[in-house]
C-alpha cells in the first residue's frame, strides 16, 4: 500500500515549510534522550537498529556515531534524499511506508520516536504497522514507541498561536475531532499565496496501545513518561514511551 496524495503527511512532510516551521526543535534534548535510552536498553556494540520514520536522518546519524549498524526509513522521499548524503557502510536510508512489510532486517532494536505514529485514517493500519515492526525484529529484540501522553495533551491543548519563522507568520489552530488531535497550519508563502496544511494524530490512550501490542504479538516490558526516562504517570507525564519485546 503506498501513500496517496490525500494523506496529510504525504504532502506536509515533503514541504520545505514543514522543516522551516520546526527548525528550532531542541535537537540537544533529543540527543540526550537517545543517549539515556541506549544506556537504559544497552544494545550490544554493532547491534542492528532501525529508526522507523527517521525524517532527515538526524537521529539515525547520532545512533550510527554510537557504533551501531543503523537503517533509517521514512515515507518522505525528499527527507530520505537529504539523509542519504550521510550514508555509509553502517548507515543506510530507504523510502518506506511502515504499513508495508519491512524488506530490511532482522533488527535488534526498532525505534519509533517523537510521535511518529498514529497518522493513518484507518485504525487497523496502526496494528499493521506494529506487526510489520515486530516482524522486522529478531526474536528477543525490542521496539520502542515514543508517543505523546494523549490525555494530558488534550487537556492542555492550545487552541491558537502564531509563530514567525524566517519572516513567515505561521498561524496554528488546534482542536480535537473524531478521535484525532488536529493542527491546522496556515500561512502566506513568499509569493503571497495562502497555504494550509494539517497534522492529524490519533488520540491513542495507553489502553488502546496495549490492545494494539497484544494484536501485534508484542509484550510490554515497561512504560516511561518523559525523556529523562521517569516512570509514566497518566496525569502528569508529557510522554508515553513504550518498551516492547518480541
UniProtKB/TrEMBL annotation:
PANTHER family: METHYLTRANSFERASE, UBIQUINONE BIOSYNTHESIS O-METHYLTRANSFERASE, MITOCHONDRIAL. This is SAM-dependent methyltransferase. Gene3D superfamilies: S-adenosyl-L-methionine-dependent methyltransferases, Vaccinia Virus protein VP39. GO terms for molecular function: methyltransferase activity. Keywords: Methyltransferase, S-adenosyl-L-methionine, Transferase. One of its GO terms (biological process) is methylation. Residues 50-141 form the Methyltransferase domain. The keyword S-adenosyl-L-methionine applies. It comes from Hymenobacter amundsenii. InterPro entries: Methyltransf_25 (IPR041698), SAM-dependent_MTases_sf (IPR029063).
Amino acid at each position: 500500500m503506498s501513500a496517496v496524495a490525500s494523506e496529510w503527511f504525504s504532502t506536509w512532510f515533503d514541504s520545505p515549510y514543514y522543516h522551516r516551521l520546526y527548525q528550532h526543535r531542541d535537537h540537544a534534548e533529543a540527543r540526550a534522550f537517545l543517549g539515556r535510552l541506549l544506556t537504559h536498553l544497552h544494545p550490544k556494540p554493532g547491534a542492528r537498529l532501525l529508526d522507523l520514520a527517521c525524517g532527515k536522518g538526524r537521529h539515525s546519524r547520532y545512533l550510527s556515531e554510537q557504533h551501531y549498524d543503523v537503517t533509517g526509513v521514512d515515507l518522505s522521499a525528499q527527507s530520505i534524499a537529504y539523509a542519504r548524503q550521510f550514508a555509509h557502510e553502517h548507515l543506510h536510508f530507504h523510502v518506506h511506508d511502515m504499513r508495508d512489510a519491512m524488506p530490511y532486517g532482522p533488527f535488534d532494536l526498532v525505534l519509533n520516536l517523537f510521535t511518529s505514529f498514529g497518522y493513518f485514517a484507518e485504525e487497523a493500519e496502526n496494528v499493521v504497522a506494529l506487526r510489520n515492526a515486530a516482524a522486522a525484529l529478531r526474536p528477543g529484540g525490542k521496539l520502542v514507541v515514543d508517543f505523546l501522553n494523549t490525555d494530558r495533551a488534550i487537556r492542555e491543548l492550545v487552541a491558537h498561536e502564531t509563530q514567525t519563522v524566517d519572516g513567515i507568520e505561521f498561524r496554528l489552530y488546534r482542536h480535537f475531532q473524531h478521535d484525532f488531535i488536529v493542527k491546522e497550519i496556515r500561512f502566506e508563502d513568499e509569493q503571497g499565496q495562502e497555504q494550509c496544511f494539517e497534522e492529524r494524530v490519533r488520540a491513542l490512550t495507553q489502553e488502546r496501545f496495549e490492545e494494539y501490542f497484544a494484536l501485534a504479538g508484542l509484550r510490554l516490558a515497561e512504560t516511561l513518561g518523559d525523556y529523562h526516562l521517569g516512570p509514566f504517570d497518566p496525569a502528569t507525564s508529557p510522554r508515553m514511551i513504550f518498551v516492547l519485546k518480541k
